[in-house]
Amino acid sequence: MILENIDLEQYDIDLTLEDFKDEMADDFNDYFRGQESIHELVRAPRQAHQFCDWVRTKRGYLDVPDDIILQCVLDRDEVSVEEIAMEIPCLGIQVTHSMLTQLGLSFA
């Protein structure tokens, strides 16, 4: 799933994608207060789900899937495209050739 293809209105969210990403990154920072990175979180599915539930409850975005919330935080993290691509499978997303191509990467 590529974030730019997400229609936030289907989740009754009246924000631009960029504003939504900012909210998710702010919520991540509020929740973890620097104690955990997004890269550590995606390797801990139970804790990642708890964080996403907290966001959904706090914001009232009850139908937003975990992967969208986590991808938004990943997108705001200051990491290289290669590191993000390596994290995608941890989110339960199947990496396709077209996804890697859009990220400017290729299969090794």
Short synopsis of the structure:
The protein has 108 residues and is mostly helical. 55% of the residues lie in helices and 0% in strands.
Can you walk me through this structure?
The protein has about 110 residues and is mostly helical. The chain has a domain of about 70 residues. Helices cover about 55% and strands about 0% of the residues. It has 6 helices and no strands. It is globular, with a radius of gyration of 14 Å. The relative contact order is 0.15. The model has no long low-confidence stretch (mean pLDDT about 80).
Helix and strand layout, with pairings?
Layout: H1 17-32, H2 38-41, H3 45-59, H4 66-76, H5 81-87, H6 97-102
Helix pairs in contact: 1-4
Report mean pLDDT, rounded to a whole number: 81
Ends apart, CA distance between termini:
21 Å
User: Please, how many helices?
Assistant: 6
Low-confidence stretches: none
Helix amount, in percent?
40-55%
**How many strands in all?**
0
Order of helices and strands: HHHHHH
**Rough shape?**
globular
Annotation keywords:
55% helix, 108 residues, mainly alpha
